[in-house]
Amino acid sequence: AAMLPFMGRVMAGSQQLVFLAVAVALIAGVAALIVCACLVSARRVGLTKWLQARFDNRPVRLVVTMLDALALYRQKPGIVAIAIGLGVFNQIIIVIAVTLIGWRLGFVGPGVWEYGVAAPLTQLVNVLPVTPGGIGVGEAAFDQILRLVSAGTGVAAGFGSIFLAYRSFSIIVTLPGIISYLCFSGVRRKIG
């Protein structure tokens, strides 16, 4: 939804991109409807048993596990709401950090909205197992996404350095966690 204001500029003259955007939107809409139906339904409709009886392979087991998880989530909506709220808060913090880093590095063209689109999409691309830790892939994706969403600003710069600086900063900030890991990793909890 955050990409909608940029769609006309990004897809100007490209029927393939329009088709891809429509296909992705339809798939996402169907997936959202299925998730909502699973969360709202008061009883299980037997879909998991039917899937397991009809197909017994790894993708079906993954779908069955996800449907079972949705059934568990339905029992604790408050915890799900808290988790979603924390996830949104985390994304807001990341967008603020990337925006501040970009501004401090002298990139004045993109605004908060452009960084707000590019940072979460880059995190999604960064998860792809192409390189160890997504190094290089995230920076290239951030550069390309930010170029697309800030196409009319006249800025032609290497935006990948912003994401590299963000990645370096987040590594440095989380390094103190190694101390607590080393101190407490050998501690065994008593069960019972």
In short:
The protein is an all-alpha fold and 192 residues long.
Assign a percent range to the helix content.
over 70%
Series of secondary-structure elements, N-terminal to C-terminal: HHHHHHHHH
In DSSP terms (H or I, runs of 4 or more residues), the helix count works out at: 9
Low-confidence stretches: none
Distance between the termini: 48 Å
Determine Rg (CA atoms, Å): 21 Å
Shape from CA axes?
globular
Task: Explain how this protein is built.
The protein has helices at residues 4-10, 15-40, 47-54, 58-75, 77-104, 112-126, 137-149, 160-174, 177-184. The chain is an all-alpha fold. The termini are far apart.
Topology:
Layout: H1 4-10, H2 15-40, H3 47-54, H4 58-75, H5 77-104, H6 112-126, H7 137-149, H8 160-174, H9 177-184
Helix pairs in contact: 2-4, 3-4, 5-6, 5-8, 6-7, 7-8
Based on the model shown, name its key terms.
single chain; 192 residues; mainly alpha; 72% helix; 0% strand; globular
